[in-house]
Specification:
The protein contains six helices and two strands. By secondary structure, it is mainly α. Strands 1-2 form a two-stranded antiparallel sheet. The relative contact order is 0.18.
């Protein structure tokens, strides 16, 4: 049951972030659920590998390069999920930041 609640909260966060950021489009709630699942899988399997490969650059930039990695993961999800489109790198960057903030806010409410 906890996984379903987390999935719905993440899908709501995706919808909120997409409605705030111009250049990010989502067709429906079910597309947002699919985006939440794909982002969860990418964050579990691909993101750690990307962070490991870019570790020297992340250290030099004091961790700010992690924002670029998050943006690349968002753009990869956009390429994988039909009905979810991100217009530009800047849109994906802002979407990533807002998605993180909204997810944090919703997770504190869900406790």
């Amino acid at each position: 049951m906890r996984i379903i609640i987390s999935l719905v909260l993440n899908a709501l966060a995706v919808l909120v972030a997409a409605s705030v950021v111009p250049g990010v489009d989502i067709d429906s709630f079910w597309t947002a659920v699919l985006v939440a699942v794909v982002l969860g899988l990418l964050n579990t399997f691909v993101k750690p590998l990307l962070i490991l490969l870019t570790l020297p650059l992340t250290i030099v930039t004091l961790g700010l390069f992690t924002l670029v990695v998050n943006t690349l993961v968002i753009m990869l999800a956009s390429a994988l999920v039909p009905g979810f489109s991100v217009g530009s790198f800047l849109s994906a960057l802002v979407f990533s930041i807002i998605l993180s903030l909204v997810t944090f806010f919703l997770s504190t409410l869900g406790r």
